[in-house]
Amino acid sequence: MWNLSDIAKSVDEWLNSVMSPTWVLVVEMVVIGVLAIALFAVLGLVLVIMERKVAAYMQIRLGPNRVGPKGMLQSLADTVKLLVKEGLTPAGADKFLFNLAPFIAMITAMLLLAPLAFAKDFQIWDLNIGVLYITAVSSLSVIGILMAGWSSNNKYSLLGAMRSGAQIVSYELSAGLAIMTVVILTGSLQMSEIVKSQADGWWLFKGHIPAIISFVIFIIAVTAETNRAPFDLAEAESELTAGFHTEYSGMKFALFFLAEYINVFIVCAVGATLFLGGWMPFHIGNWEGFNHVMDYIPSSIWFFGKTFFLIFVIMWFRWTFPRLRIDQLLNLEWKYLLPISMLNILVVTLIAIKGWHF
Amino acid sequence: MYTITEEILTTPSGDMVINVGPQHPATHGVLHLLITLNGETIKKVEPHLGYIHRSIEKMCESLSYRQFIYSTSRMDYLSAHINNHGCALAVEKGLQVEIPPRAEVIRVLMDELTRVASHILAWGALAMDLGAFTPFFHAFREREMINDIMEETCGARLTMNYMVPGGVMMDIHPNFQRRVKELLKQFSEKIDEYDELVTYNTIFINRTKNVGYLSKEDAISFGVSGPSARASGVSCDIRKIYPYSIYDKLKFDEILYTEGDSYARYMVRVQEVKQSLSIIEQLIDNIPEGDFQAKTKAVLKLPKGEFYSRVETARGELGVYIVSEGGMTPYRIKFRSPGYSNLSALDHMTRGSKIGDLIASMGTLDLVIPDIDR
Amino acid sequence: MNREELQAYLGGLGSSLTFEEGGEWINLFVDPGQFRELMEKLRNDEQLAFDYMFCLTCVDWKTHLTMVYHLSSTRYRYNIVVKAKLDRAKPEIQTICDIWRTAEFHEREVYEMFGVNFIGHPDLRLLILPDGWEGKNPMRKDFEDPVNMIKL
Q1: So what's the pLDDT on residue B1?
Q2: Would the CB atoms of C126 and B1 count as touching at under 8 Å?
Q3: Which residues does chain A have with pLDDT short of 70?
Q4: CB < 8 Å to B3, chain C
Q5: Is residue A277 one of the residues assigned to a domain?
Q6: Partners for C (CB, 8 Å, 3+ pairs)?
Q7: Is residue A124 within 8 Å of residue A163, measured between CB atoms?
Q8: Which of B137, B206, B355 is nearest residue A239 as measured by Cβ atoms?
Q9: Is B50 within 8 Å of chain C by CB?
Q10: Which three-class secondary structure state does DSSP give residue C94?
Q11: What count of other Cβ atoms lies within 10 Å of the Cβ of residue B147?
Q12: Which residue in the set B16, B25, B137 is minimally distant from A59, CB to CB?
């Protein structure tokens, strides 16, 4: 059966047979870069159409249904429209920062792709501090947003950026602590190790109630970190028109838009990896027959299936919940989520030390 | 209306002044609020009006008593029927004409359908202002049914111009009763869904409870009327306290809440939908036979004098004040629009709260800008 | 109190009050000089408690302006109309926006539409009309605007 790691391996072998190892590295890097950008484009298109279809389903309407079969090419048409649109820069804006901000947002999202394990043995960079890398790099995204808000020279943008700054910095704590519970249980920061440790069951089920608590906190915190409703205060359409990207148009706006969806994908992928076993098929303890059947499903399908399930959950939030107010948002983090996750991490430590988990 | 200069936008204390509107998603039209902010806290809200002021009052001075009613549909376009009803009542007071019972029942039915349509739209729009997009579409599902009923009978979906002095313009469509019953059935099935989706949502409750508080005394002093005032405990339903048409013969309750916050204003609307539906239920099988319009002269002339009618629109009390000199056109017309007075309380309600609270307060006041600007 | 009793009671509130017969409600004419005093009495008198002002407007009678105040009592459900004749050349009247706060907006509207100067109003600026319309008073009967007004 074909799988992604075999393809990668055969490409690597073929390259090694025709050129020197240095050139192999260069060529492989270029290929990975192209693949990453291609993945971005495809993900952007898929997620946008998915969001619109999910929203339409929840809102008893049809959603896009004109371009392509059942409207599936609508986001492609939108991309073309955005590409040919004029990218305006306001007269009072700090032009350098204004034009830099969307790229910062995009590059941060791209960097986060590195340690994700898309399938069995298929990973761009299996660095030994993968989880730490993700938490560190994802906090850079706030710089892009602050930069956009500040340089636009627009009060709505500034308010949106301030909100976003306060929000991302606060919710990173809970997200980090939620991730830490899995790290404690696994004893490793490496993504591949974390996935392998879930061969006999996912941490969501193995780690008792504390793992479930931290999973819920993780989902809430990453929804806030990616500025998605009900935590979309940075954009808050009805309050701040469009928040930090009020002044952006054309492709620069599209980059922010894309970065938001890519971030959603990445946090969901991280969530799926940490709590739902990543590419690991659904295994139950020692049920050999059942586990064997599950293994027949390719690992990449498992990974994307879990990720898209989480993405669907986050979209579900967006289309059903009203938005929180800024003080309620910060109260939720500092008065509820943070104390709970701190307590939770102590319990998990106890479980890990005593070896009570399955 | 106001030209914005640099001096207005920078205050000596360093507070931030933002223009909310005239084009802003939450103002539902072209309302312009100049808000002074300290961080996220509102220090002052200053409305600037006039972006769609059409001077309907001045226009009406050169229109005949039959014609001027049509321009009133364009004031509060969400309760167009009730505006027309108020004007027709004022003219009828001058004409001393007896309205056939069939016309009265049709008028009340149309008024209540309009009220339901307006309240569920307010329900959806409030949820959308607070960031939940889905309820808006659910609200439109039932609103479309009402609009279809209106279209069949009146020929229009928004500005119906159905009521004329002496009755209604034409008889109801043969399908009217059947479709209204379908609507009632649909509502009885879906009204719980409304509550589940929004009313009991914790985030929604947190966003609206204790937000935009308006005390009973302030509500009266600011001239706030309609659901917004009833949420503060002011008994001000014109249908109850100064009954017009056949409202004194109908069984319905005036919804009163005493909290005076945004949640109470929201709840009043939700409960009023149920009351209006019960009024429709009482009337739909009991439309008397007879004329739908009283016989009136082709050219209406009101005697010299002043005529004032008060009706309860979906937003509050609409007053139509006609000063007649005995001619074919009114000498002066004043529309006391509910939105104008309700808006004046906004500054008082929102000082010291956050931007999000301003949106919630504005959403629960249910402002319709053409009603304010006239 | 019925209508006659109310009219008799109101008659005792001031010396310059005259009543206009007919109409749905009691029409009360007051001299602009005593206007403010009367309005305070109407609001604060325990027997009347006219706490709700539901309409405030002005009528241009070509010879003079008439301010019209519709008052209602939420306690006793009385309605009365208070009117005050103003000089058309220099219309001035005391503000009542501290008694009924709704009057603040309504007085601003009357100020820009009819040019009535409300003495003591805290913020008498244009509310609806754009800048540059000060002193034009479009709702007056003799207002002419050849561009925007279409005569029917």
Answers
A1: 46
A2: yes
A3: 1-3, 207, 285, 357-358
A4: 130-131
A5: yes
A6: B
A7: no
A8: B355
A9: yes
A10: strand
A11: 17
A12: B137
Residue B374 within a domain:
no
Domain check: are B22 and B94 in the same one? no
B74 domain residue, yes or no:
yes
Residue A58: list chain B partners with CB under 8 A: 134
Query: Which residues in chain A have their CB less than 8 angstroms from residue B197's CB?
Result: 320
Give the closest-approach CA distance of A53 to chain B in angstroms. 13
Within a domain: A341: yes
Q: What pLDDT sits at residue B11?
A: 60
| pTM beyond cutoff 0.95 | no
What is the set of domains in chain C, with CATH numbers? 3-119 (3.30.460.80)
> What pLDDT does B158 receive?
85
Cis peptide before B22 (omega within 30 of 0): yes
B65 touches chain C (CB under 8 A): no
Indicate the length of chain C as a whole number: 152
The reply to whether residue C74 touches residue B235, judged by beta carbons under 8 angstroms, is yes
ipTM given for this complex: 0.87
Contact B131 A320 (CB under 8 A): no
Cβ-Cβ contacts under 8 Å for A23 (sequence gap 6 or more): none
Give the type of residue at B56: I
CA dihedral A238, A243, A245, A246 (to 10 degrees): 60
Residue ranges in chain B whose pLDDT is less than 70: 1-14
Residue A55: its chain B contacts at CB < 8 A?
Answer: 133-134
Determine how many CB atoms are found less than 10 A away from the CB of residue A261: 22
Looking at chain B, which residue has its C-alpha nearest residue A160?
Answer: B40
Asked whether the predicted pLDDT for residue C143 surpasses 70, the reply is yes
For residue range A90-106, list pLDDT tens digits in order.
887 788 888 888 888 88
Structural domain including A196 reads: 90-354
Q: Both B37 and B81 in a single domain? A: no
Into how many domains does chain B fold?
A: 2
Q: How many CB atoms lie within 10 A of CB C32?
A: 17
Q: Which residue has the tokens 């710089």?
A: A143
Which pLDDT score is estimated for B4? 47
- Please give the residue range of the domain that contains residue B20: 1-51
The whole-number average pLDDT for the span C15-42 is: 81
Between chains, do B48 and C127 touch, taking CB under 8 Å as contact?
Answer: yes
- Closest B-chain CA to A157: B18
For residue B167, give the nearest of B228, B253, B239, B107 by alpha carbon: B107
Residue B248: count other Cβ atoms within 10 Å of its Cβ: 10
Residue of chain B minimizing CA distance to C96: B221
3-state secondary structure B31-84: CEEEEEEECCEEEEEEEECCCCCCCHHHHHCCCCCCCHHHHHCCCCHHHHHHHH
The total domain count for chain A is: 1
Residues B6 and B91 in one domain: no
Looking at residue B13, its pLDDT comes to: 67
